[in-house]
Amino acid sequence: MARTDQSQFKCPICGYSGLFADHSVGANIKRKYAFCPRCGAAERHRLQSKVLDVILPEFAATSKSALHFAPETFFVNALKGSFGSYKTSDLFRNDTDIRADICDLPLPDASVDFVYASHVLEHVPDDRRAIAEIYRILRPGGIAILPVPIYSTGNRSSDHTVEYGRPRKEEEGHVRAPGLDYFDRYLEVFEDVRIYCSEEFPVIPNDNQLYIRAPSGGPDVIYDLLPDYVPVCRKSDAS
Ligand SMILES: [Zn+2]
Questions:
Q1: What is the Å distance from ligand 1's center to 117 Cα?
Q2: For residue 48, how far is its CA from the centre of ligand 1 (angstroms)?
Q3: How remote is the CA of residue 207 from the centroid of ligand 1, in Å?
Q4: pTM
Q5: Mean of all residue pLDDT scores within the chain
Q6: Distance 36 CA to ligand 1 centre (A)
Q7: Mind spelling out the 3-state secondary structure of the chain?
Q8: What percent of the chain has pLDDT over 70?
Q9: How far is the CA of 187 from the centre of ligand 1 (A)?
Q10: pLDDT of residue 2
Q11: What are the φ and ψ backbone dihedral angles of 97, each rounded to 5 degrees?
Q12: Nearest alpha-carbon partner for 107 in 142, 70, 141, 67
């Protein structure tokens, strides 16, 4: 039987302190301590928030522009307040500024300084075209933050990307399970890619819970601490 443990955490996004909610499907816990109960942020969002804290102070400016795909509500204000121009985009949603296909953006070359698209590319069949398109619209020296789920339910080992060839309904429409080698696709296009990882942040009492805590699959209920990753891709100043 699972022990009831009362670990407490802090949410770096909304400031909540206390118990976090598990991600469960039926009676099965898929990810322990996944969600902040106040703002709904998951592990990946909390790690991304820590990375934004590092990136934005030195990069963002009122003279710069940001484009946010599939915008998470809890990141909107931070990004909007950090850039002079801030626009949202999505292929399906009606509540964004630009309804567009990430593979064919209605934006000029070198017109945006900062692109944020978290957990988008695993839904895009021609993701290399999307990556090239993001590079195209970035100004020289621009940044794209492009996280994908490395530890998904279908790809627990996570070293190698598995292409499904079609959207998998049971995996929220993902067309692939990205592995750690997925980030090589960014290096094919961008001059510099820095991968931030949960392991850069210590696991201590009342921390921000930046790991995916997945059941180990053995007879006892043990949760493995799986790191998440935030790739930050830079277009060279000389491009
Ligand atoms: Zn929160």
A1: 20
A2: 13
A3: 13
A4: 0.93
A5: 93
A6: 5
A7: CCCCCCCCEECCCCCCEECCEEEEECCEEEEEEEECCCCCCCHHHHHHHHHHHHHHHHHCCCCCEEEEECCCHHHHHHHHHHCCEEEEEECCCCCCCEECECCECCCCCCCEEEEECCCCHHHCCCHHHHHHHHHHHEEEEEEEECCCCCCCCCCCCCCCCEEEEEEEHHHCCEEEECCHHHHHHHHCCCCEEEEEEHHHCCCCCCCCCCEEEEECCCCCCCEEEEECEEEEEECCCCC
A8: 95
A9: 32
A10: 46
A11: -75, -40
A12: 67
What confidence score (pLDDT) does residue 220 get?
A: 75
> 221 C-alpha to center of ligand 1: Å?
26
For residue 28, the cross-strand partners are 25
Amino acid 157: pLDDT:
62
CB 114 within 8 A of CB 68: no
Query: If you measure from the C-alpha of residue 34 to the centroid of ligand 1, how many angstroms do you get, rounded to a whole number?
Result: 11
Tokens of 10: 């802090």
43 Cα: distance to centroid of ligand 1 (angstroms) = 10
Residues 182-231: tens digit of each pLDDT: 999 999 999 999 999 999 999 999 999 999 998 887 777 788 899 999 99
Distance 42 CA to ligand 1 centre (A): 8
Provide the pLDDT confidence category of residue 151 given band limits of 50, 70 and 90: confident
Residue 37 C-alpha to ligand 1 middle, in angstroms? 7
**CA angle at residue 236 from 70 to 188, to 5 degrees?**
70
Tens digits of per-residue pLDDT, 115-125?
999 999 999 99
Q: What band does 163 get if pLDDT is binned at 50, 70 and 90?
A: very high
